[in-house]
């Protein structure tokens, strides 16, 4: 593992550090825009008093904290970075591949480096059942890693293209505390609210940090999920959202798309059919989440 000097120094001095994933850069945003967001998220973390640590795998090496050249490489479509979940880290390292880290793999690497707070977009969850199926066995590795790794993840819930009800149940079953940041309901990524309540609410970074510290001291060893709704002014219009979701699900059924191919297809439809509105929402919520993550990190004990 190669930890950037800025990150290593901050950790040694007990200063706040926030982990950032690279999948959103390599796979979630268009070329050009992704590089601007890469800089913007790190700037937001620094402005809030913490040190950013963007994580990726380059030449088979775990990288915690990327310089400009490495960020350029991650954001360049020609680099062909693989999407690496937790299960993919070993093969990528052994075969000396390049890869962008998901929430699951970023969380594991952050914990190994001694970083306890991670700001991101939307958590992976339980996928909706395939057409004609009663349930789905497609469950994101994000949930299992969060259940076994004591890292606080700040996100905007899960995307509405997933099974939010089943995801909330899995989090409860796996003993992952869910804190609503200034909200009483579990957010649905593009939308601020779903029909599901959060079990606990916090209204300040200090309160969130206090809960996280207590959970780490006396809890079951899991991480903590802090759900922060997208800012009001950037929430996707409800009618547009519902229309795009219905159209996308119809496309999935018609093409008999299954498994891991479902979510990318749905998100691409959102991005294209909304004429970029969903991308604006995505970017806004990521920036809001990393700011909250940094504010929480500055209140956690070293």
Automatic annotation (TrEMBL):
<dbReference type="Pfam" id="PF04227">
    <property type="entry name" value="Indigoidine_A"/>
</dbReference>
<keyword id="KW-0464">Manganese</keyword>
<feature type="binding site">
    <location>
        <position position="83"/>
    </location>
    <ligand>
        <name>substrate</name>
    </ligand>
</feature>
<feature type="binding site">
    <location>
        <begin position="140"/>
        <end position="142"/>
    </location>
    <ligand>
        <name>substrate</name>
    </ligand>
</feature>
<comment type="subunit">
    <text>Homotrimer.</text>
</comment>
<feature type="binding site">
    <location>
        <position position="138"/>
    </location>
    <ligand>
        <name>Mn(2+)</name>
    </ligand>
</feature>
<dbReference type="InterPro" id="IPR022830">
    <property type="entry name" value="Indigdn_synthA-like"/>
</dbReference>
<keyword id="KW-0378">Hydrolase</keyword>
<dbReference type="GO" id="GO:0046872">
    <property type="term" value="F:metal ion binding"/>
</dbReference>
<comment type="function">
    <text>Catalyzes the reversible cleavage of pseudouridine 5'-phosphate (PsiMP) to ribose 5-phosphate and uracil. Functions biologically in the cleavage direction, as part of a pseudouridine degradation pathway.</text>
</comment>
<feature type="active site" description="Nucleophile">
    <location>
        <position position="159"/>
    </location>
</feature>
<dbReference type="GO" id="GO:0004730">
    <property type="term" value="F:pseudouridylate synthase activity"/>
</dbReference>
<dbReference type="GO" id="GO:0016798">
    <property type="term" value="F:hydrolase activity, acting on glycosyl bonds"/>
</dbReference>
<keyword id="KW-0326">Glycosidase</keyword>
<comment type="similarity">
    <text>Belongs to the pseudouridine-5'-phosphate glycosidase family.</text>
</comment>
<dbReference type="InterPro" id="IPR007342">
    <property type="entry name" value="PsuG"/>
</dbReference>
<feature type="active site" description="Proton donor">
    <location>
        <position position="21"/>
    </location>
</feature>
<dbReference type="GO" id="GO:0005737">
    <property type="term" value="C:cytoplasm"/>
</dbReference>
<keyword id="KW-0456">Lyase</keyword>
<keyword id="KW-0479">Metal-binding</keyword>
<protein>
    <recommendedName>
        <fullName>Pseudouridine-5'-phosphate glycosidase</fullName>
        <ecNumber>4.2.1.70</ecNumber>
    </recommendedName>
</protein>
<dbReference type="GO" id="GO:0046113">
    <property type="term" value="P:nucleobase catabolic process"/>
</dbReference>
């Amino acid at each position: 593992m190669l930890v950037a000097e800025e990150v290593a120094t901050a950790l040694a001095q007990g200063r706040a550090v926030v982990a950032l994933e690279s999948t959103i850069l390599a796979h979630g945003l268009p070329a050009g825009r992704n590089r601007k967001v890469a800089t913007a998220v790190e700037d937001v973390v620094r402005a809030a008093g913490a040190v950013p640590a963007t994580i990726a795998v380059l030449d088979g090496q775990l990288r915690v904290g990327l310089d400009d050249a490495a960020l350029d490489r991650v954001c360049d479509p020609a680099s062909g970075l693989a999407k690496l979940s937790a299960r993919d880290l070993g093969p990528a390292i052994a075969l000396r591949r390049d890869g962008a880290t998901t929430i699951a793999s970023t969380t594991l690497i952050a914990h190994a480096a001694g970083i306890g707070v991670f700001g991101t977009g939307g958590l992976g969850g339980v996928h909706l059942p395939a057409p004609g199926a009663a349930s789905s066995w497609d469950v994101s590795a994000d949930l299992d890693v969060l259940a076994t790794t004591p890292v606080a993840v700040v996100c905007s819930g899960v995307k509405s293209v997933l099974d939010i009800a089943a995801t909330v149940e899995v989090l409860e079953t796996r003993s992952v505390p869910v804190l609503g940041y200034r909200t009483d309901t579990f957010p649905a990524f593009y939308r601020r609210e779903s029909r599901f309540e959060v079990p606990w609410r916090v209204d300040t970074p200090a309160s969130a940090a206090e809960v996280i510290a207590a959970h780490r001291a006396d809890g079951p060893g899991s991480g903590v999920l802090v759900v922060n709704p997208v800012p009001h002014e950037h929430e996707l219009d409800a009618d547009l959202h519902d229309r795009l979701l219905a159209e996308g699900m119809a496309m999935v059924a018609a093409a008999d798309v299954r498994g891991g191919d479902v979510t990318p297809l749905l998100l691409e439809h959102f991005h294209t059919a909304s004429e970029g509105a969903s991308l604006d929402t995505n970017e806004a919520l990521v920036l809001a989440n990393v700011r909250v993550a940094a504010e929480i990190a500055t209140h956690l004990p070293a």
